[in-house]
Design brief:
The protein has eleven helices and no strands. The chain has 192 residues and is mainly alpha-helical. Helix 1 crosses helix 6, helix 4 packs parallel to helix 7 and helix 5 packs across helix 6.
Length: 192
């Protein structure tokens, strides 16, 4: 039992170190040796859990994407109206990005660079199915614009990451009023 928890702690330390170093240095400037040092494990320990650096980053991405999705859909109920469902999901996403800043920055970096392989991206996308299904239902009901889910995401969800980055750089302060205004703008950008 003790060995399992010790093993899990090492893996968690590696995940946290990877997120931090990729956020601060980028993927290419984050060697495995730095990850091991920050996680306070030997470099060889990484290979007990991950095949190589690409496998490490892919698995961290999938793990963080799963946690993000769990938070985004934590109190979402499929039977609600499209608008109510979208507001619920959108505000959960905003809350995640404002509370779990390191993880949100990591996801943003992964979404904006080719560091994640395609199978891992597809695995991460599966976690967003409730949102994609909601949009599809909204299109069928004539509520949501009949465009690609990528367009819907770009105009309604992605701006949260931009605002988070501006707050991180201390150029903008996100308040509850700003969140409500941003939500209204997001909804208006995708509704018919």
């Amino acid at each position: 039992m003790n060995r399992v928890s010790k093993s899990q702690k090492k893996k968690e330390a590696l995940v946290k170190a990877t997120i931090s170093l990729v956020n601060n240095n980028g993927f290419h400037a984050t060697p495995m040796s730095k990850i091991a040092k920050m996680a306070e494990v030997s470099a060889g320990t990484i290979y007990l859990y991950f095949e190589n650096k690409q496998d490490l980053v892919n698995q961290v991405y999938i793990e963080v994407k799963a946690a993000f999705s769990k938070f985004a859909f934590k109190d979402y109920k499929e039977g609600v109206s499209v608008e109510e469902g979208f507001e619920n999901i959108w505000k959960n996403i905003a809350e995640f990005k404002l509370k779990e800043i390191e993880e949100a920055m990591f996801l943003s970096q992964c979404d904006n660079t080719p560091i994640i392989d395609e199978p891992s991206r597809k695995e991460g996308l599966k976690h967003l199915e409730p949102l994609l299904d909601l949009w599809e239902r909204g299109k069928e009901q004539g509520i949501i614009k009949p465009v690609s889910p990528y367009m819907l995401y770009a105009f309604s969800i992605y701006p949260i990451a931009f605002l988070m980055n501006m707050q991180q750089r201390e150029l903008y302060k996100i308040t509850p009023t700003n969140v409500n205004e941003a939500y209204e703008m997001a909804w208006n950008s995708i509704k018919i």
